[in-house]
Amino acid sequence: MRRGRIEHSSDVHERGAPVPSSEWERASMILGVAVRALLPLLLLFSIFLLLRGHHAPGGGFVGGLVAAAAVALYALAYGATAAQQLLRLSPRGLIAAGLMTALASGLVGPLMGAPFLTGRWVKVGHLELGTPLLFDVGVYLVVIGVTLWIILTLAEE
Amino acid sequence: MDVLLAVLSGFLLAPLAPWLDRRLGKRWGWMWALVPLGLFLFFLRFVPALARGEAFTRRVPWIPRLDIHLSFHLDGLSVLFALLISGIGALIFLYAARYLEGHPHRGRFFLLLLGFMASMLGLVLAENALALFVFWELTSLSSYLLIGFEHERESARSAALQALLVTGAGGLALLTGWILLGQIGGGFEITQWRSQREQLIVHPHARWALALILLGAFTKSAQFPVHFWLPNAMEAPTPVSAYLHSATMVKAGVYLLARLQPIFGTMDLWGATIVPVGAVTFSLGALLAVRQSEAKRLLAYSTVSALGLLTLLLGIGTPTAVTAAMVFLLAHALYKAALFLIAGILDHETGVREPERLAGLRRAMPITTVAAVLAAASLAGLPPSLGFLSKELFYEALRAAPRWPLLLLGNAVLAGMALVAVAGLMGVRPFFGRERSELQFLHEAPRPLWLGPLLLGLSGTIAGLWPAGVERTLLNPAITATLGQPAHIHLAAWHGLNPTLLLSALTIAGGVGVYTGRGIVRALAVPRVLARFTPSAGYAALLNGIFTLARFQTRVLQSGHLRYYLLTIIAWTVGIVGYPLLRRADGIALRRSAPEHMMDIGLALLIPLAALAAVRFTSRLAAIAALGVVGYAIALLYMIFGAPDLALTQFMVESLTVILFVLVFYRLPRFATLSGRWARARDVVVSALAGGVVSALVLSVLEMSPPNVISEYFVHKSVPEAHGRNVVNVILVDFRALDTLGEITVLALAGLGVYALMRLRVEE
Fold it and tell me: What is d(CA B26, CA B30) in angstroms, rounded to the nearest whole number?
């Protein structure tokens, strides 16, 4: 069952999900409504931070923290289970994906005859894309994964 | 085909083995034997050229900056070993496929066996000492996994661990020795060391290097007093015992001695340590073997003995001794692998592991009987086997030994007698005599099981009958490579009536005596005092000591109270940071600089006030809020001093802390004062010291000149080389990406740790 996807907030209501589970019944309605408005904004902001990091303050680490905070807020309002379903990928999966991404970005160098983790760049139009960005995406995913793993485990308890 | 590919093929195939073996089905397991067989043929092609005195080197740079290369050297010695590894390997693979037919993890077994074979080939062919070390450790590792193959059994696990700890410790000693030698010689290529041996051996550190290397060789080749791991390693499936723990891996130490003989052979330390160790191992192993009742343990102790003899001969190092060592090496590999495989057949067909409980199997198992008799004859040194030739040669070599010839000879005759008794137990006892009624429904072992022992037994006999053939093709090049100069040996089955032949006859006669009187040898009780001081008791005591120490320090450091952890961490940091600061003679000058903004002053006052409030508040919520004030104020400071990245992260961390706090708020215990007056006083002192030390550190960093060499570099290279204007981020994801990779890995592990801790509590 697909639940708790923000784009479908109307059928979320119809199916009665995300239903605050019994222990979350006291969660405030104001928080619930606010979170649904905030979540997309915060996620967008986290990606913004991730992407601008190379030239201006930001980066994968802080971006990951923002995204994790967004999901954590959602967990506060609707419970850990709902947040888990929102994520689709488990925090563990996020960590694994992040580590693999970072590692893969490092392996581009050796494939092109340069040492491990050498930055490689391609120019698309006037946009410069490079392996460091991919690496930062890895950091981003690991940070989200670890933070949420801890928070959701605590929330489930 | 290339040597590099030949060595690596096993590693490349190994990961596929579990999958491939399942696809092949249980009947087609013999296909695995094609891998070592192909390698055997590959190495065989080098034999004619090696017999003409050529040698081959293949070098692939691996980590050139550290002088580590995948360089391989094919000379008589390494190819003799490579042929043994691949040739015996082919028979073992064939045997194992049938022996483990229907075993759920046969694929995994072949994975490990292939990995081992490749590591062993790498070990004997490696020319670079550090590459050799890597392969050396890989053989220890695969041996560990293979001994513990039946890991459900506790005894298998502890035997595997014992073998790993002993050989692993030796491996570390070897590495240290290599590094010392590399420091002296300036490189890690063994041929290079050989050409500069005069300078090497007079260096004051050469003795230490040699001692460490010998430690490695002795542990690997199970020399007294660390021989005990080898008999325990018999927990492994029989093909493993035959392959790793008799024919190949345990010979790695011997190989190393042979390889280094031309470099260190003339040093005093060489003969003075190797000869006694080898001699003691030789006779002790043989005597202990007679006392065993289980076939595999019996053979294991006789292997210990054989390794002792090989070590002893290489320690003597005269041309005759080296010749004897090489002939014995070949003879032993052939007969001992055969005997192990026969022990496996007996176990497989009868379910009985003690040769004493079997008799008269020759009728039911004629082929196995032939193989066993041939192999045992070689072990006992009966003509016309290769074992006989080698015995003649080593008596010859011991008689002419420069040191203690009579003592060595007496020791050898004693050991030889015991080995004859072992041969009787393995080659005569189970097969002859009256047939046991309960064993009469037995039949011959399947072909893949008897083929190996029979071929090995026959090879030993043929080599003994026609020694000139193996001499020219295999032994002479190996001896030349070991001695570092051409050897002129002449093997012959008949040397005429001489004292050596008499000694041989005496050994056999005495051996028959020991065999008949083996009951007495076994009944001899070891004094209890002695039993407490055996090397294996020493190993157990050492291991227990380490465990006790670990438990003690865990109890001290991991009290389970968060406040003590914090106290320990902070006090320790104060110590190691504060001490060097105090030692700085010049002290710290306070620079007076006026604060630029009122904001700075405000924050500087706010932070300590909030901290003080956090300590004084009696409500948890208020205390946490006060801590939050500290955090956000610090983030503001970062902002002001131009570190927006840090500030952003700090803000986020503070916010997440709030969320975490909300999650656990209702579950926290009562907010109480847990510490008494004294504890609080202590905490005040420690925290004041911590604050003082950090302030002093920051101030002294400001004093240092020039403080920004590396940051200048980063600032200048950031845009042209890393295409980024945010230097902090460029450092994180590009310049120092390896550090970051390490950090996110640690982060992932920390997450795992937190998860495990909380799950554990839930389950309780």
Answer: 9
Report the number of distinct structural domains present in chain B. Answer: 2
Spatial contact of B387 and B335, defined as CB atoms under 8 Å apart: yes
Cα gap A102→B193, rounded to integer Å: 42
Given the structure tokens 């001992």, which residue do they identify? B336
Give the angle subtended at the CA of B678 by the CAs of B677 and B682, to the nearest 5°. 120
Is residue B663 less than 8 Å (CB to CB) from chain A?
A: yes
Q: How many CB atoms lie within 10 A of CB B635?
A: 19
B498, B524, B550 - which closes a domain: B524
Window 566-625 of B, Cβ < 8 Å to A: none
User: For the whole prediction, is pTM greater than 0.90?
Assistant: no
Residue B60, min C-alpha distance to chain A (Å) = 16
Question: Which region, left, alpha or beta, applies to residue B25 given φ > 0 means left and ψ of -120 to 50 means alpha?
Answer: left
Could you tell me if residue B68 is inside a domain?
A: no
The answer to whether B740 contacts A139, with C-beta atoms less than 8 Å apart, is yes
Query: Does some domain include residue B658?
Result: no
Q: Please choose, from the candidates B112, B142, B137, the residue with its C-alpha nearest in 3D space to the C-alpha of residue B123.
A: B137
Q: Which domain holds residue B734?
A: 708-764
| Residue extents of the structural domains in chain A | 6-156
| B415 within a domain of the structure (yes/no) | yes
Lowest-confidence region among A143-147, B433-437, B597-601 = B433-437
pLDDT at position B708, please? 59
Q: Does B649 touch chain A (CB under 8 A)?
A: yes
* B740 vs A contacts (CB less than 8 Å): 102, 135, 139
| ipTM of the modeled complex | 0.83
B20/chain A closest Cα distance in angstroms = 27
**Model confidence over B335-363: pLDDT tens digits?**
999 999 999 999 888 888 888 888 888 88
Strands A127-130 and A121-124, bridge-based pairing: antiparallel
Q: Exposed, middle or buried: residue B29 (CB in 10 Å: 0-12, 13-18, 19+)? A: buried
Q: Note whether A142 contacts B648, CB cutoff 8 Å.
A: no
- C-beta atoms of B762 and A157 within 8 A: yes
Spatial distance between the Cα atoms of B153 and B157, rounded to a whole number of angstroms: 7
B344 in a domain, yes or no?
A: yes
Q: In the listed set B489, B506, B524, which residue is the last one of a domain according to the structure?
A: B524
Cβ contact B734–A69 (<8 Å): no
CB contact under 8 A, A59 and B744: no
Give residue-wise pLDDT tens across range B630-659: 999 999 999 988 888 899 999 999 999 888
A 32-91: CB under 8 A from B: 49, 53-62, 65-66, 68-69, 72-73, 76, 91
Tell whether B726 lies on the interface with A, counting CB pairs under 8 A.
yes
